[in-house]
């Protein structure tokens, strides 16, 4: 008998809260509300704002032979360019103009999506807090679709344990070692019910923070996976489904491999499972508790850690896109300023779902780098706090981007992809290096004023 057995994937409508057909005569469509581990929402801008939609979620009708899960995952892949992981079905049918829409809550790493992703259906992507997502959805002029998307957003947020950004991130299979449950297992029916808020804490899972923590727990597609943290052995797989009062744990698979788990009495297993869910998940810590060294190591690997060039570059890319779109007249005039305000807070405070580098994100380090790299007035900047210095540096960057765009517009022989884009990309690399303190290596002797239209 194998020591582990590949987990079966639910098919069709198994474990889903929906009927297979609807009586309204409208077609069914399936999609995904995609979040990162801290609860930020991935939104897509609709190409040419088709049918009055500006920012929305990925969804579409089923292809022949597809299950709801397959349709939703395919639509997210086609319209956002990513392979996400299903966390849970979002209960409810959401009516649009021509379809009844059903959604899954999905998870992806912060750095996975390319925010510049574009195709015939999508213009670009953006990460947003719930409040930012509401404002983005409000830009749609299709009133029925706007109200539908706001309802979907609220239903998705109800599956999260708190208002994002989450202080304690969602656990993912890839966060820790884990093995599949062996073929030697028993299946026990359950009738335990949980409220919506309790279920949200269960979906978050639990990541071990020290050697004393015995469990690694994550939730995927309606199933709670409980693994021993030291060995990765799977002890329980708990199956959930929506019910009238919230959610129900209706079945648990229990490891019975004698070389992995020695317990044999179901009542002891169920008592242990109840303790895990009640104490580690429902009443577990709201914030992570980690020792100093482990905390530093954990921070450096978090998707929102402001150390990797990819993370910093993606943030600055938002400003470049806003300035270009603002110049084209496709966004409001204050769009770039709004991004500058947002980034100034992210790089100066640990309050936006990002983690700053100890020692670097200070007036004495990053602040001085911005003054020099962006040619800011040293006397004017003397005594200013980091938030102000970041804002000044980004404002100087905004002016330089505008200067290059004006140079492109005045050059009758210039082409966007051949001439403008390479110069903007190099400016973006320089700005990223300044924010990381590596510009003396990547661009020695270069400052912002050295970037001129060529």
Automatic annotation (TrEMBL):
The GO terms this record gives for MF are: bis(5'-nucleosyl)-tetraphosphatase (asymmetrical) activity
Domain Nudix hydrolase: residue ranges: 25-151
The Swiss-Prot or TrEMBL record lists the needed cofactor(s) as: Mg(2+)
> What InterPro entries does this protein's entry cite?
NUDIX_hydrolase-like_dom_sf (IPR015797), NUDIX_hydrolase_CS (IPR020084), NUDIX_hydrolase_dom (IPR000086), Nudix_hydrolase_domain (IPR051325)
Under the heading Gene3D superfamilies, the entry gives: Nucleoside Triphosphate Pyrophosphohydrolase
Q: Which domain of life is it from?
A: Bacteria
Q: Which Pfam families match?
A: NUDIX (PF00293)
What PANTHER family does its record include?
Answer: BIS(5'-NUCLEOSYL)-TETRAPHOSPHATASE [ASYMMETRICAL], DIADENOSINE 5,5-P1,P4-TETRAPHOSPHATE PYROPHOSPHOHYDROLASE MUTT
Q: What is this protein called?
A: Nudix hydrolase domain-containing protein
Which organism is the protein's source? Answer: Stutzerimonas stutzeri
